[in-house]
Amino acid sequence: MKIIILNKPFNVLSQFREDDTHPTMANFIEDPSLRIAGRLDLDSEGLLLLTDHGGLNQFITHPNNKKYKTYLAQVDGDITEEAIAKLQQGVELNDGMTLPARVNKVSEPEWLWERTPPVRYRANIPTSWVEIQICEGRNRQVRRMTTAVGFPTLRLIRTKVGTIDLIQLQLQPGEQTEIEPLLYPDFKDLPPDEPYRSRSYVKKPGGKGGKPIHLKNKKEGEKKKSGTKRIWQMNESERPRRKTNGTTRPNTKSRGRGR
């Protein structure tokens, strides 16, 4: 399994498909086997995880697995303790209530790189920084959460996915590095990387193939029985009647098997 960590710059699309107006992953990643696990929005920056493992995206983003993503958000205004408490409890969004988040007000970090273009500056309105950890993956979730409590996000940087720390890796915007999965506890319970298999199939012990469940459970030579009569097996009183509005003439043509 290969895992690449990229520090995604601002204004870069989390996709490999080329775009006429914005740079994409194709400008940074050349390995065609890699796929994005946990996207970042165009206007968000920071840790982006790419892998050749098919099930890693679901493993990281599904809230049941409790893989917390850590974000550093610069918000419009001096965020209050009341607003932080609301974020910690969960806030109501248009797609439902969020799970409780881990939230702390922090100072502007010393390691922070410059953004191009920079965040707008307004002398009469201060800004503040907050660290938010969530285990969900809704669209633009952190931005919608801070807006819901009255402090819109001006700049958003993802710094961690589980124990993978972008700041410890010392990656500048656009830089990337490969990590060893065995060094991170986040990948200990990762499901095996297998191609999609229909749930109606049962895998053979030690093999790759399988039988449909209804065939696997059927004894050898046993004919499948059906409790539902076919239309030609019913007598006249059992056959379903077509509903009409009273204006349709009855069908007098003879139909059926052998006629």
TrEMBL record:
<dbReference type="GO" id="GO:0003723">
    <property type="term" value="F:RNA binding"/>
</dbReference>
<dbReference type="InterPro" id="IPR050343">
    <property type="entry name" value="RsuA_PseudoU_synthase"/>
</dbReference>
<dbReference type="InterPro" id="IPR020103">
    <property type="entry name" value="PsdUridine_synth_cat_dom_sf"/>
</dbReference>
<dbReference type="InterPro" id="IPR042092">
    <property type="entry name" value="PsdUridine_s_RsuA/RluB/E/F_cat"/>
</dbReference>
<dbReference type="GO" id="GO:0006364">
    <property type="term" value="P:rRNA processing"/>
</dbReference>
<feature type="compositionally biased region" description="Basic residues">
    <location>
        <begin position="200"/>
        <end position="217"/>
    </location>
</feature>
<dbReference type="GO" id="GO:0140098">
    <property type="term" value="F:catalytic activity, acting on RNA"/>
</dbReference>
<feature type="region of interest" description="Disordered">
    <location>
        <begin position="184"/>
        <end position="259"/>
    </location>
</feature>
<dbReference type="GO" id="GO:0009982">
    <property type="term" value="F:pseudouridine synthase activity"/>
</dbReference>
<dbReference type="Pfam" id="PF00849">
    <property type="entry name" value="PseudoU_synth_2"/>
</dbReference>
<keyword id="KW-0413">Isomerase</keyword>
<feature type="domain" description="Pseudouridine synthase RsuA/RluA-like">
    <location>
        <begin position="3"/>
        <end position="146"/>
    </location>
</feature>
<protein>
    <recommendedName>
        <fullName>Pseudouridine synthase</fullName>
        <ecNumber>5.4.99.-</ecNumber>
    </recommendedName>
</protein>
<dbReference type="InterPro" id="IPR000748">
    <property type="entry name" value="PsdUridine_synth_RsuA/RluB/E/F"/>
</dbReference>
<dbReference type="InterPro" id="IPR018496">
    <property type="entry name" value="PsdUridine_synth_RsuA/RluB_CS"/>
</dbReference>
<comment type="similarity">
    <text>Belongs to the pseudouridine synthase RsuA family.</text>
</comment>
<dbReference type="InterPro" id="IPR006145">
    <property type="entry name" value="PsdUridine_synth_RsuA/RluA"/>
</dbReference>
<feature type="compositionally biased region" description="Basic and acidic residues">
    <location>
        <begin position="186"/>
        <end position="197"/>
    </location>
</feature>
<dbReference type="InterPro" id="IPR020094">
    <property type="entry name" value="TruA/RsuA/RluB/E/F_N"/>
</dbReference>
<dbReference type="GO" id="GO:0001522">
    <property type="term" value="P:pseudouridine synthesis"/>
</dbReference>
